Amino acid sequence: xxxxxxxxxxxxxxxxxxxxxxxxxxxxxxxxxxxxxxxxxxxxxxxxxxxxxxxxxxxxxxxxxxxxxxxxxxxxxxxxxxxxxxxxxxxxxxxxxxxxxxxxxxxxxxxxxxxxxxxxxxxxxxxxxxxxxxxxxxxxxxxxxxxxxxxxxxxxxxxxxxxxxxxxxxxxxxxxxxxxxxxxxxxxxxxxxxxxxxxxxxxxxxxxxxxxxxxxxxxxxxxxxxxxxxxxxx
Length: 234
Known about the structure:
82% of the residues lie in helices and 0% in strands. It is mainly alpha-helical. The chain is elongated.
């Protein structure tokens, strides 16, 4: 298939929706994680709490509470990683039942007739989203395992400066693992938008915009962020 032939598989609204989707997904990640908005975010406040946890952790011996807290985070990660595998397998199965899928999609409101090739490409995009989610969750899982190792390597006899550096290391690894978990969840959200693409590219564009608004509200103006900042200033 030539590149020119590939371009004709999608209509211009489909290409518009796909470009808008990629801009929103990866652009949102850059804006939030790099702090371009200049506003306090839930991610920043969570990192501060992780630093506080690390400093409190240094004063506990044995650190049974910290081990339990890390262990409490791992089941959620395992659940999402396993669920991603099931979703990926289901999407591969859907590629083998394309005719039934197209018939079901054509009966939905606002749907339109699209070619088999376009439907397959849309499924592959959706598959790619959940593959990314799987990689994010499994990488987060490994980083939480590294966090356990970081916890176990806390020295007993060390200077104040060395202990502070170890606390910052613990908090940084914790944030890296948590941020990748959030990226995996974000992929799930945007995967829901791709599902609407099967019905209409315009619904795809609107769904992507709604997801960005929901995520931005939770990150910058959610009640939990207000609780963290209000009580954190006292």
